Amino acid sequence: MHIVHLEDDGPLREILAAALKAVEPSCELHQFKNSDETVTYVEQNTQKVDLFILDIRVPGSMDGLQVAQKIRELKCSGVIVITSAFRVPSRDLLDKLSCEWFPKPWHIMETTQRLLQLGRQREKTIEPPKPPVEQLPPPPEPPKPPVANLPPS
Predict the structure, then answer these.
(1) pLDDT of 59-115, one tens digit each?
(2) In total, how many domains does the chain have?
(3) Where are the extended beta strands (E) located within the chain?
(4) What CATH number has the domain bearing residue 60?
(5) Cα(104)–Cα(143) distance, rounded to whole angstroms?
(6) What is the pLDDT of residues 87-101, one digit of tens each?
């Protein structure tokens, strides 16, 4: 599972990273402190990310909700989870951006389980790449009926 986490609070980043790795050791986690680094990464990895965890109040030229909007403009199909201890986004905005809402503070293990469950749902909707179709040689021509050697008449 490929996860992008935008959070400016260092200890919270570390706690979530430890919890995610404890529950899902194979997850590929990319954490960012500001919105600009996050958007740059997402632009280069548009369809690879299964789960975005975005704090609203972060440094950079955008807040977490604007990052979510940018993710959707890039046609990313990953699950987006918006989180904050300060601001509750409107239900209309969350619906428009197809986002989940996880208010802070979190119970870390419960939140981790819920986040991974959401990411797994997205993973299941992606079809695995189809193997290339082999070019088979054309089928052999059917054998011609044998010519009968009849005695001359």
Answers:
(1) 999 999 999 999 999 999 999 999 999 888 999 999 999 999 988 877 776 777 788
(2) 1
(3) 2-6, 28-32, 51-55, 79-84, 99-103
(4) 3.40.50.2300
(5) 76
(6) 889 999 999 999 999
